[in-house]
Amino acid sequence: MASSTSPQDVTMSQSTPHPPVDDEPKYGGFSRFEIELEFVQSLANPHYLNHLASQKLLAEPAFVAYLSYLRYWTKPPYSKYLTYPGPTLKHLELLQQERFRQDIISPDLVFALVAEDIKASLEWHKDS
């Protein structure tokens, strides 16, 4: 039976990492869980999203597949570890859309996201 995958297809593990345990392999001294947590939290920063777009990473099929894989952070066992779940998860969802991945190169969109995030933060603090 011939394989139906093309050379550009990227196979991603369907398993999600678990919070670190002592015997887990380390990568540069960090667990897979810690590395993915740090990366997914960096997506809360619109300027970083713009940087990823300027490096053309958001057009790479392997990177887009990785962003899709990271959606496991939206589930409660994982989302509780996020420092800023609102903007992190909002931007992760937006990154699933090709149009957003193309448009985030625009400084106007970056500034609009920053303003929106600041407004949401101020509203949250006002209510608490």
UniProtKB/TrEMBL annotation:
Query: Where is this protein primarily located?
Result: nucleus
Q: Name one GO biological process term.
A: regulation of DNA-templated transcription
- Polar residues: compositionally biased ranges: 1-16
Q: Does the keyword Transcription regulation apply?
A: yes
What residue spans carry the region label Disordered?
1-27
Q: What's any one GO cellular component for it?
A: mediator complex
State where the protein is found: Nucleus
| MF terms (GO), sorted A to Z | transcription coregulator activity
UniProt KW keywords: Activator, Nucleus, Transcription, Transcription regulation
What Pfam families does UniProt report for this protein, alphabetically?
Med31
Q: What does this protein do?
A: Component of the Mediator complex, a coactivator involved in the regulated transcription of nearly all RNA polymerase II-dependent genes. Mediator functions as a bridge to convey information from gene-specific regulatory proteins to the basal RNA polymerase II transcription machinery. Mediator is recruited to promoters by direct interactions with regulatory proteins and serves as a scaffold for the assembly of a functional preinitiation complex with RNA polymerase II and the general transcription factors.
- Assembly and oligomerization: Component of the Mediator complex.
Similarity annotation: Belongs to the Mediator complex subunit 31 family.
| UniProt-recorded name of the protein | Mediator of RNA polymerase II transcription subunit 31
Q: Which organism is it from?
A: Pseudomassariella vexata
